[in-house]
Amino acid sequence: MAKGIPVIGRAPDKKAKIINVDELGNLKVSQLESKLDGIENKLVALEQKLTDGSQKVTLSGTKVVESAPVTGIKTVTSTVAEVFAGSSRKANRSKIVIRNLHQAVAIRIGGSNITDTIGQSLEPGASVEIDFSPSTAVPIYAVSTAGNVYVEVLEV
Amino acid sequence: MTYQITDMGNGIHQIQVSFFDEGVELEGETTVKGTPEDAERYVSVFERDLRTNYAHIFPQPEPEEEGELDDEIY
Question: How many CB atoms neighbour CB B21 within 10 A?
Answer without folding.
Answer: 8
